[in-house]
TrEMBL record:
Pfam families named among the record's database cross-references: Aminotran_3
Enzyme Commission number(s) of this protein: 2.6.1.11
Organism, scientific name: Veronia pacifica
Metabolic or biological pathway: Amino-acid biosynthesis; L-arginine biosynthesis; N(2)-acetyl-L-ornithine from L-glutamate: step 4/4
GO molecular function: identical protein binding; N2-acetyl-L-ornithine:2-oxoglutarate 5-aminotransferase activity; pyridoxal phosphate binding
Swiss-Prot/TrEMBL keywords: Amino-acid biosynthesis, Aminotransferase, Arginine biosynthesis, Cytoplasm, Pyridoxal phosphate, Transferase
Cofactor names: pyridoxal 5'-phosphate
GO term, biological process aspect, one: L-arginine biosynthetic process
Name assigned to this protein: Acetylornithine aminotransferase
Signal peptide: none
Reaction catalyzed: N(2)-acetyl-L-ornithine + 2-oxoglutarate = N-acetyl-L-glutamate 5-semialdehyde + L-glutamate
Length: 405
C-alpha cells in the first residue's frame, strides 16, 4: 500500500496548477452535513461541494451502491453498454420530459453535448446559416472553450484567444431584448432557469414563458442548463417543473452523482436522431461505477418526502437569514429557491462576499459565494434542523466579528 502522510496546505502551491485559492484547512472525512479536517476540527457544511453533495457526505445509500458496484464492474467504455447506465437512463426519462440520454462526466461536458446537438440539428434541418446561439450575461455553463464562451462572464472566457463564433449575449430576464435579437438565424437559446454562479437570480415566469414562445416562433431550440438547479435542488426534481415551461434539451450534473463525477444531456427522441454513431462520444461517460451511484442518488432524491423536505429547509434558511439581517443589516435581499439560496449584500457591504465566507470558515462553517456581492448556500437536501441551526449560529458569530471591525 502507498504510505499515507499528513499533507500541508503549502504542498498545493508546490505541486498544483494555480487555478484555485483553496482554504487553509484540508478536509479529512465527512458525515452528513459535517466535515472534519486533518486536525479533527469540525465544520458545518452549507456549501455541499458547490451543490453536489445533495445527500451529504457518505450517505448510506451511496456508500452501499458504491461498494456493491466496486466489486462487480468499474469501466467498459462506450464500445459496450452496461446495466447501471441503462437503468439510470430509464429512470431519468421517467422523471422528466426527455426520451433519450447521453452520459458525460461533468456539467461542462453535458452542456458541450447539448450545444453540439443544437448546432447539428440546425445544420441538418435548416442549413449552415442557422447557427446563432443566444445566451445571457452572468450565465455559467462550464469551462470548456465552447461552454465558457456561451457563458456570459468575460472573467472566465477572455484571455484564451479567438472564441467560437455566432454566440450572442443578452441581459437575463429581459424579454424585449430577446425579442429584438432572436431571428431565423438563431439555432438555440441556452439559459439557466435560475442563475447560480451569476448571483442566484430567479427569472420572472413571464420571461421563461416568453423565451419558450420566441423559440417556437423562430424554430430555435430551448436548452435549460440544470446542472446546479436539478436533482431536487429547488424542491422539484428539475426546476423547470415549477414553471410550466418545457425545454427541448436539458443538462444535468453536479448532484446527479452526489459526489461521483457524472453528467447527462437529456432530450427528445426526435432531436436525438441527429446524434448519429460517431457524432459525439465520451470514454468514461455512463461508466458502471458512476451510474450505479447516481441511480441510488436519484432513487433517494426523487422521493416525495425528500422533495417536500427541501421546501421545509428553505424556510429554515430564509427565516434564519432574515433574523440575522435584522440584527446586522448586511443583506439587501434573500434570493433563490429551495436549497439554492443567496444572501445579496447591501450597499454598505458591496464586494465583501468572500469576507463573509472567510469569517464563517473561521467559525467552523463552510459557505460559497456567487460573485463578489452574494453569499451562496447549497447544502445537502437532507440536512438536519439541528445542523441548520448550528450553522446559522456559527454564521451569527462570524457576522458579529465582521460588523465589529
Amino acid at each position: 500500500m502507498t504510505a499515507e502522510f499528513k499533507v500541508e496546505r503549502k504542498l498545493f502551491d508546490e505541486v498544483m496548477v494555480p487555478c484555485y485559492a483553496p482554504m487553509e484547512m484540508i478536509p479529512d472525512r465527512g458525515e452528513g452535513s459535517r466535515i472534519w479536517d486533518q486536525d479533527g476540527r469540525e465544520y458545518i457544511d452549507f456549501a455541499g461541494g458547490i451543490a453536489v453533495s445533495c445527500l451529504g457526505h457518505c450517505h448510506p445509500v451511496m456508500v452501499d451502491a458504491l461498494k456493491a458496484q466496486a466489486e462487480k464492474l468499474w469501466h467498459l467504455s462506450n464500445v459496450m453498454t452496461n446495466a447501471p447506465a441503462l437503468r439510470l437512463a430509464k429512470k431519468l426519462t421517467e422523471l422528466c420530459f426527455a426520451e433519450r440520454v447521453f452520459f458525460a462526466n461533468s456539467g461542462a461536458e453535458a452542456n458541450e453535448a447539448a450545444l453540439k446537438l443544437a448546432r447539428r440539428w440546425a445544420k441538418e434541418v435548416h442549413g449552415e446559416e442557422k447557427s446563432e446561439i443566444i445566451a445571457f450575461t452572468q450565465g455559467f455553463h462550464g469551462r470548456t472553450f465552447f461552454t465558457v464562451t456561451v457563458g456570459g462572464q468575460a472573467t472566465y472566457s477572455d484571455g484564451f484567444g479567438p472564441k467560437p463564433g455566432h454566440v450572442t449575449h443578452l441581459p437575463y430576464n429581459d424579454l424585449s431584448a430577446l425579442s429584438e435579437a432572436i431571428s431565423s438565424r438563431t439555432c438555440a437559446v441556452m439559459m439557466e432557469p435560475l442563475q447560480g454562479e451569476g448571483g442566484i437570480v430567479t427569472p420572472d415566469n413571464e420571461f421563461l414563458q416568453g423565451v419558450r414562445e420566441l423559440c417556437d416562433k423562430h424554430d430555435a431550440l430551448l436548452i435549460f442548463d440544470e446542472v446546479q438547479t436539478g436533482n431536487g435542488r429547488t424542491g422539484t426534481f428539475y426546476a423547470y417543473q415549477q414553471t410550466g415551461v418545457v425545454p427541448d434539451i436539458l443538462s444535468t450534473a453536479k448532484s446527479l452523482g452526489g459526489g461521483i463525477p457524472i453528467g447527462a444531456m437529456l432530450t427528445t427522441a426526435k432531436l436525438a436522431e441527429h446524434m448519429k454513431i460517431g457524432t459525439h462520444g465520451s470514454t468514461y461517460g455512463g461508466n458502471p461505477l458512476a451510474s450505479a451511484v447516481a441511480e441510488a442518488v436519484i432513487d433517494e432524491v426523487s422521493k416525495p418526502d425528500v422533495l417536500e423536505g427541501v421546501k421545509v429547509r428553505e424556510k429554515w434558511f430564509r427565516d434564519g437569514l432574515t433574523r440575522l439581517n435584522e440584527k446586522y443589516d448586511m443583506f439587501a435581499e434573500i434570493r433563490g429557491k429551495g436549497l439554492l439560496m443567496g444572501a445579496a449584500l447591501n450597499e454598505k457591504w458591496q464586494g465583501r462576499a468572500r469576507d463573509v465566507l472567510i469569517a464563517a470558515g473561521e467559525e467552523g462553517l463552510l459557505l460559497l459565494v456567487a460573485g463578489a456581492n452574494v453569499v451562496r448556500f447549497t447544502p445537502s437536501l437532507v440536512i438536519s434542523e439541528e445542523e441548520v441551526m448550528e450553522g446559522l449560529s456559527r454564521l451569527d458569530r462570524a457576522l458579529a466579528k465582521l460588523t465589529a471591525k
